[in-house]
Amino acid sequence: MLDNKSKDHPEDRVAGLDKETEQSLYQKRQKIYPREVHGLFAALRTMGVISLLGLYYILPWLQWDGRQAVLFDLPERKFYILNMVFWPQDFFYLALLLIVAALGLFFVTALAGRVWCGYACPQTVWTEAFLWIERKIEGSRPQQMKLDKQPNNFRKIRIKATKHFVWIVFSLFTGLTFVGYFSPIRELAVNFLTFNNGPWESFWIYFYALATYGNAGWLREQVCLYMCPYARFQSAMFDQNTMIISFDPMRGLPKGPRKKTADKVEAGLGDCIDCTICVQVCPTGIDIRDGLQYQCIGCAACIDACDDVMDKMGYDRGLIRYTTENALKGKHVTIMQPRMVVYALILIGITVGAFYSISTRTPIGVDVIRDRNSLYRETNDGLIENVYIIKVLNMDKQDHRYTLSAEGIPDLILKKDSDEILVKSGEVIELPVRVQVDADNLAQRSNEITFILKAIGHDELVDIEKARFLGPKFK
Length: 475
Description:
Number of helices: 17
């Protein structure tokens, strides 16, 4: 007899779906064992990992003019990048850099999808390094799965301990390198090995090492799936002309296993042999055959894996490939859309402007602050006098002597304590000066004057700052 409440009752189906949803939210994470893959995109990804990690680990060890080539010296407020020195006053360039990075990400995402995630994201890069270490110690995907299923024994503990030891050493070296961008790394390394680092240096070394070990060794794909905000808002930059990694359902379905010699047309099957290799190589564990998913990081491992299977079966490559939604539907693909042109023009304009500004910047600065305690005063000689505080900043790598002059009003007199101003590298000095003018030479109550700061012996080091000179009401 049938139960009073049929299994097909709508309320039962809703309750069942709610229960499945609850279980999926709270179920224990299933470890993903990405299968090693070879091919064009795997080679490109490997080249990217080696290049980026090599740049990260080698750069702080390079020397330039007897100092570290790249060093962000926070205590001294000096930021060395090769032959350039930046100061806190150059924060404007950091803002430009962030704008360029954001626009570059928007442009690349709108054009080619999540290639940043698949090839250059720090989470992806360090995870690839940790996976490589894991494969070298624990073996291939089947060997890793077999090892994890074994009960604890001496061999398993030895292999696991070796892997984690190498991971921890690599993480500590990563943390040391990170702090080495802010503290001279040669001295830092010696102090680290002899346990003589200061508390803050030690804290950041171990903190960054722990973050690397946790994110790349344990969390892995969970950072991309649950923690990374980029996966959530990327859809706002996608359209049907954006390059994505996609399975071709028109060609691949119906899917099903078959022998290499079988006639797929007679069997009524598509090119997909349902081998699930594309799922096994995916670092986030998704099935690309289910369509575009936010979990896909665009690493193209499934493309290499599927192409290899197609070669073995004697089918054409490209069942899984980089394509667009319009291309899959047989529609015309328009790459350079208006928004792409706007992104490109803005990105080029800001980048060129930033590089031009940096290349032509003057490593000296002058700031004029007018004394606001009095508008003006009259001297014993009958001249109108304004008082200013001149701030002189030397942003060059060497000390300089400067001369200060003023112009803008006929017969202007500049009174200062010394004809030459000595400012050491990175130093800011305040210099009180007085400007005196004959009242008959004032054209109006508020007059524009110009202060000119020049470095002695360096004609190219000049900075000009405008100010206002106030006098009695013009008659």
